[in-house]
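Appendix B, record 7
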Amino acid sequence: MDIKKYTSPYEFEGRIPLKQAIPLGLQHVLAMFVGNLTPLLIILAACGGSELELLRASILQNAMLIAGIVTLIQLYTIGPIGGKVPIVMGASSSFIGVFQSIINIMGGGILAYGAIMGASIIGGLFETVLGAFLKPIHRFFPPIVTGTVILTIGLSLISVGINLFAGGNRSLDFGSLENIMVALSVMVVILTFKHYTKGITSTASILIGIIFGYILCFILGFILPTTGVNAAGVEFTKAWVLNLGGITTASWFAVPKIMPVMPVFDIRTIIPVCIIFIVSAVETIGNISACTEGGLGRRATVKELSGGVMGDGVGSVLAALFGVLPNTVFSQNAGLVSLTKIVNRFVLTIGAIFLILCGLIPKLSILISIMPKPVLGGAAVIMFSSIVMSGIQLITKKPLNSRSITIVSIALGLGYGLGSSSVALSGLPQYVTFIFGGSGIVPATLVAILLNIILPQED
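Structure tokens (predicted):
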């Protein structure tokens, strides 16, 4: 290919050299890898049982394969399915609450996991239909509403980023000086390359920061103690430690298993999961809007939003057939697009191909899955904060008046406040906390939509 024909990574359909696309695509994979596997690890642990333990490795392998395939569907579309916008897909954490309830209903084990897969198939089909009829309801999402949704998504993710920054709240050395210093070092490297260099080193600053974090943790393993002892006298491995042992035992190639767990269809599980798929569609609208606003500098079209939601639904059905949790647009990568402005489809295609390779080459997937949480946290705080700024930019695109200030302030105060403090809803039925508790994205969105409808327009 003639180098003169190369364009820019800041164009969705621009042509860039492979040597530039590979690090930028890998950057996207590193941003979402742990987040893609974490919901699966939580649900598999909650289900328990020896049968699932034997399937654990193949299900995690399938998670990477499906994320890559569904990302390609979103990038290139199949008919009306797919948004054709710069997004990356992965296993959603929005369903964790309702899935844990299903585990309690079904008694755990492989039966409960099968019921989750069955409900996800039906729910994915439901979301696909919802996306097909998105046009009539699109008018309820003007910039003031979508901006509020994007702002809420960013705010809800910052706590996740800080959690990783300190080592992950499940780690016994959470908030230790070593964890904080590793995360800060990664953040400083990212900011240095982002603002003090030009070209590929600037645009791939997140990747450079993460690679630096790997090297730093490897070196620290020879300098500092890698284990500690908790108050009960139990020894533990510190969160910043880079554990390379799993790479040597993993195989080089493994064929993905279709339907590692047979779906079980139970009406008690299908209805609540379908409700959460509505929530997922709302989050997808917000994340796609964040990508187009933050990366492309424009509002998402109805066709893009509709195709994106349909892509979510079809991707979730495909995921369930491979024993994987529902797939949705990843907020982490929306933040990366907003931060770097890299929207090139070829870059994201390279990332999707790498995800597929991770699903076929266990050694490669393990190399990324062992990323220390403080390393990811140093990058995540920057990425998630950029989503907040994308929301603010969208909200302030037009001069703020008393009506728009009321919509944003009440949506954040009442909606996001209730959602992020789910204990305030503990006296209500359990399905209410499933839908509105946790991140605050859904209640804030509903409050913003409702106020936008009922408050009179100002001249």
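Remarks on this record: Residues 182 and 374 are 6 Å apart (CA to CA). The radius of gyration is 21 Å.
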